[in-house]
Each structure stands twice: as structure tokens, then as C-alpha cells.
Amino acid sequence: MLAMNYRGPYRVRADHKPDPVIEHPGDAIVRVTRACICGSDLHLYHGLVPDTRVGTTFGHEFVGIVEEVGSEVTKLKVGDHVLVPFNVFCGSCFFCQRELYGNCHNTNPQASAVGGIYGYSHTAGGYDGGQAEFVRVPMADVGPTVIPADLHEDDAVLLTDALPTGYQAAEMGDIAEGDTVVVFGAGPVGIFAAKSAWLMGAGRVIVVDHVEYRLDFVRRYAQCEVINFREVDDMALHIKKMTDWLGADVCIDAVGCEAAGNAMQTLTGPYTMLQAGSATVLHWCINSVRKGGNVSIVGVYGPTFNAVPIGNALNKGLTLRMNQASVKRHLPRLIEHIQAGRIDPKQIITHRVPLEEVADAYHIFSSKLDNCIKTVLIPPSARQTRAVAATALN
């Protein structure tokens, strides 16, 4: 099969690899029809995630058709069109029983750090991902969800990570009616966090970034105010000026370890790796939120330490919440929002690229070229199926 193949930092290509096979009676094989490149894939692409091995296939956001099921799979059948949450989870451990699917204790040998994730290094279980023609889906009765007939496939693929992660970011902020919410990051997750903040009752939403085309997009898509941090001397002071000197009620970190905006953080983080990435946005969140406010973190950081102003958080009485999204928990509510027309996820897709051109797709997304916000990879078999269907209709 054709699959994305990681060859080292900033080097990926499309290669032919052996087709995945059923390894356990609970497995399914899914023929991928859509796979996104996620902002967190860029942390792998840039060589910032430990134990990312040459030969790995990335991709934790994908949808497809069930091609084969193991003998113990009872809830899926061949031909089902499914979306697959990025979490690999068992559904039965202590954490899954509490719907903390991102913290599953049975799907990653290093589960004390994180649960299993498709295509996200051996620190997350070493599973191959969905930027390929086929993917093995373990515990297939638990994770995959059959896509409702009235849900567009492009909306479905964004329900595997980006939208639920943005939604959970807003949820963890515990937004009260009328709250001022500041979202750091105008990438897909930040865009969905801003949109979700309104759904949860925010009275004011402000998004911070430095990429003008993304700020223009989120201003229109999420009807929010925007700040270009390149035009601000002191972020915390600026936010306080905008909020009657109190600070925001809720601050959301939707950026993570590759945040720009502070030369020392960039030097000690992504460049020299003296800490687990740049902590710039963590500083901005803690220092910009009001006393007694909430900080929600969904930006990805490495497993080692970051230097953060924890004393400021203590003295301000802040609540800090963070986690990988529990995608499956959010699906019923988010599908309802999409079907009701309250949110249209597919609007953020700017690029649809053949899987064969995965190297160009990563370069465009990583370098923020061509006004790229979200890239979807389409395998050749999916394109052929669509072409046959179009011919039949004609």
C-alpha cells in the first residue's frame, strides 16, 4: 500500500509498505478515505517528539471504510463508513470507565505518560497512523464510530481530533455566561476553541496569533476579536488593558511547544531542547488571566519539564486544567451541533492533496504557505472510488 514514511526531521515521503493485517481478534482494517495533517504532526515532523522512529507512518485524524474485521468484532461490519478517534483506548480500564479515553491504561507500554495515539511515536504506543491507504485499528468495537448518513466526510474527519480538542479546551475553561475568553493560537484547534467558547456562553472571545491570514480567517469564522502579538510589547499588560485591568476570565493554550514570541523560550525550547519546547504561551496564559481565573491547556508539550511561572498561578488562585481530548465522549454533542448548523467544521479545510504528494503537503502546512489552515490527504483508492461514483451518476 501507499503510505507516508518518516525519514527524519523535515523529511517525509510517500512509499510503498506492506498492507496491515489483523493481529488480534478485536482488530479491524480500515481503508482510509481522508486523513488530515494535524498541527501536532508538525512536532513529529520537526523532530521534537522523543522516540519518533524512521519508517513510522503518521496520521491520527482519519476516516475510512471497514475492509476486514477480526473474529471478536461485533459492532462493526465490512463496508461501514467510520470515523476513528485519535485515541487508541480499551473502553474498560479505570480511566476509560471515567471517559478519560486519552489516558487509557492498556494501549501504551508507557501509559503512565499518555494513552495510545495513532501515528504519534513510540511514546504513544508506536501505532502506525492513517496517512496511508490502509490502517490497523485495534479494539475496533470501542473507538470507531459509524458516520451518520447526513454528515459530510470532511466534517467527519475533523471530528477525529481538531474539533473535539478545541471543544474540550473550551469545556475545561469552565466558561460562565458572559466570560471573556482569550484563545492563544489561530490554527485549527484554536479556531474551534474560539467557536466552542461562544457555544458555551462566552460574552467576548479574543484570539491571539501572529499569522495575519489565520487571524483574518478566525475573525470571520468565529466572529471574534484578534490580536497580532508581533504588534504588542507586553501580552499580559495588553490583555489587562482590554479587560478593565482585571485580566481575562479564561485563557486557552492552543499552541503548545513550538510557540513563537519569546526569543529566550525559543532558544531553550525548540532549538536547544533544554526544556520540553517553548513555554511562551503558558506564561502568557498564567499572566493574562484574572485572579481566580481558569487556564485550559490543549497545546502539546513533551514529557520532560517546562519552566513555567507556577508561583504566579498559586498566588493568583488559578485553576489549571489540561489533557488530551477524550474524542469519543464529545462526539454525540458535536454531531448534534453540526447537524443543527451551529458549526461547519469543513470550512477550515484549505488544501486537499493526493497522498502521493505528502512531502509537499507537510512543507506547505509547516511553512504556512498558500494561506494554509488545514490539509487533507486523499489516498489514490479514495479518488478512484469518487471518480467511479461520479461516472455512474452521469
Question: Main attributes?
Answer:
Quinone Oxidoreductase, Chain A, domain 1, globular, 394 residues, six-stranded parallel beta sheet, seven-stranded mixed beta sheet, alpha/beta, Rossmann fold, zinc
N- to C-terminal distance: 30 Å
Q: Please give the number of β-strands.
A: 17
Tally of helical segments: 12
Structural class: alpha/beta
CATH class of the largest domain: Alpha Beta
Largest sheet: 7 strands, mixed
Which architecture of the largest domain does the CATH hierarchy give at level 2? Alpha-Beta Complex
What's the average pLDDT? Answer: 95
Per DSSP, what share of the residues sits in E-state strands of 2 or more residues?
A: 15-25%
Radius of gyration: 20 Å
Give the SSE string: EEEHEEEEEEHHEHEHEHEHHEHEHEHEH
CATH level 3 topology of the largest domain: Quinone Oxidoreductase, Chain A, domain 1
- Helical percent range? 25-40%
Integer count of domains: 2
Shape: globular
CATH superfamily of the largest domain: Medium-chain alcohol dehydrogenases, catalytic domain
Quaternary organisation of the protein chains = single chain
Low-confidence stretches: none
